[in-house]
Give the backbone structure.
Amino acid sequence: MNKGSILIIDDEERLRHLLARIVGLEGYHILEASNAKAGLKLLEREEIQLVISDVKLPDANGVDLTATIKSLYPYIEIIVLTAFGTIQDGVRAIKNGAFDYITKGDDNEKIIPLVSKAMDKALLQYKVVLLERKIFKQYSFKNIIGHSKALQQAIELAKKVSSTNTTVLLTGETGTGKEVFAQAIHYEGSRKNKNFVAINCSTIGKDLLESELFGHKSGAFTGAVKDKKGLFEEANEGTIFLDEIGEMNIDLQAKLLRVIETGSFIKVGETKETKVNVRIIAATNRDLQKESETGNFRLDLFYRLSVFQIKLPSLQERKEDIQRLAEHFSEYFAEKVNKRIRGFHPDFLNALKQHPWKGNIRELKNIIERAVILAEDDQLSFESLPYDFDTSHISDAVFSLEEVEKVHIRKVLNYTKGNKTEAARLLNIGLTTLYRKIEEYKL
């Protein structure tokens, strides 16, 4: 069983091989390098959790190498070995991030328990790194599906602003993926290792929303039995995503404006200010400038929120992305319900492309989930669409007798698991006729 990977860096080949054998017998995967340059190359290519390095190397000092490795791979633990230990080198090695500093030969009996302790710590740190990589991959811009020009323009703008701390306002219809964009901006920015906190401002009443955002002191109102941190505090040094910002009460908007301008707020029932450093990403499906003209939204807040505005295209504006999105969702839901879906029948795909998609990506996702659940074979078909699916934009060919016959034959073939003789019997037609129709309908 592989208990972790260890890189041994030492130019004394005999001693390096001996140490590799001793440590390798404990179940660790061992890699070797004779100098610092070769060791750093291995660290680039391999997933290594622990380094054991000699101090005196042909091309570097092991104590200095410790600092280099730690700057590149903070999760890796390092044990420094020396033939002639000095207190000064030992102190410097520890300051540079070494797990320990020991003398060769004299400390042979200590090496295995020391390696075990260092590896335990390194593996915990490595798990965190793997989790961060998974999160980054899940929420990166690469995970936003679609190649349409409208979408790519929005992505390019989001990429440019992600490396800054600028407030961002995402606009567009409901269901266009505003939270997905907000997450990508956060996880590809400098705050990616800090909290991303999201709240939908339309789902919570004014008083409760104020407490959720800014927190409260014990006794501030009925039911406030203890102090509570607000989401702005939870997001300190990170990002807060305020979805449906246009629904926020006008009085609460003033408090939000103060946070943007001063980085401080007062909790409900508190008298002193709380300071935070939070990046704000807001989203709305409303025209906030028009809302401000009617008095429903503060114009000064709109200007502060819209420093960098990105409009997300509706699905109607990026119809060329529908097939790829449908493929993605069908793969996802097929895995969840343990089905094998290989694609779509032409009538199903045609219906998707002609549908107006007023609910955008969210609606498409729900439609595909339903279709996967109802699928009777390995392709999604028109009959798995909901009965109230908007067919006003769909070709009349979908409703022709020929199409009905095609769908029925496909169902019967699926029922007989491809047995054409049995299918012909159930359809009450000759086998030759069935073969002709299979070829005609390209079944």
About this structure: Residues 108-139 form the longest helix (32 residues). The radius of gyration is 31 Å. The chain has three domains: 5-136, 141-313, 316-440.
